[in-house]
Amino acid sequence: MKQIQISFARKCILIGACLCALASLNPKAGAKPADLGQVSAHDGRYKQGDKLYVFAYSGLVLRGQPSPQGAKIMTIPSASIVEVVDASPFRFAHSVKEDCGVVIEGHWVEVSFEGNLGYLFDGYLLKHEPKSRAEVDRFWAGDAKLIYETKSAPPYSGEPWIYHEQIWENGVRETYERGEGGGIQLTFLPKGMFTFADVYLLAISRQLLPSPAREWKCDCAGKKDWVECQHTNGYTTLTIQVDGSGNTIIAETYAD
b/e for 86-102, b at 16 or more Cβ within 10 A? Predict the structure, then answer.
């Protein structure tokens, strides 16, 4: 239990430091989000011929009509690529509530998959290819320019063995710390770069790809802008939350 308490304290300190440093560094005004920020499929930023990726870990049902009652054609596996045939059915809005409470909103879109034509709920379709943590470098920052980097830890009790902090021109910030008792990686995403649902799907996909979905349990405690996922090993936790200014913070903690 002591190790978990230490990790929580460090998480709070690092989140506070993350917000203060961003305010002082003030990334270039008007800097555009990285291409990765344009990932939402369900907000209409796709057209006929676009390739989209399935982010539903249990797969996504292809239906004969743009409705949850439409005849089932097949289940398309997670991480599969589908091609947009007709993006006009945006008038058919739909939403799904995850077991943890997060609401995924979107519409129905006509797609093609391995010769099969049908409709998918686009709330689980994103433009960015699903990748695990081990496969991704600068996952959230995309092609943005790195403007700040340090391996000197801020002054607080309990010097870490490893500390690495990076900030990009689009405002994305990542801090990694490893020390006695475990490690923590914090990612700060500026307001407007992603929807909460997109962050949830992208972050969860990185966690689920290396391990089966059943090994993770998520809970949002009835909040629309907070979710915590706990691994069954009891040592790994993923938390996503939106702060008072609308920025999104992802905290991934690991206890030894």
Answer: ebebeeeebeeebebeb
Phi-psi region of 170 (alpha: psi -120 to 50; beta: other; left: phi over 0): alpha
Please give the CATH superfamily to which domain 51-126 belongs.
Answer: SH3 Domains (2.30.30.40)
CATH 2.30.30.40 residue ranges in the chain? 51-126
**Taking the model in full, what pTM does it have?**
0.71
pLDDT in tens, 80-110: 999 999 877 566 888 888 777 778 888 889 9
Residues in Cβ contact with 185 at an 8 Å cutoff, skipping those fewer than 6 apart: 174, 175, 176, 177, 251, 252
Identify the band that residue 27 occupies on the pLDDT scale cut at 50, 70 and 90. Answer: very low
210-249 pLDDT, tens per residue?
A: 555 556 788 877 777 888 888 877 788 889 999 999 999 9
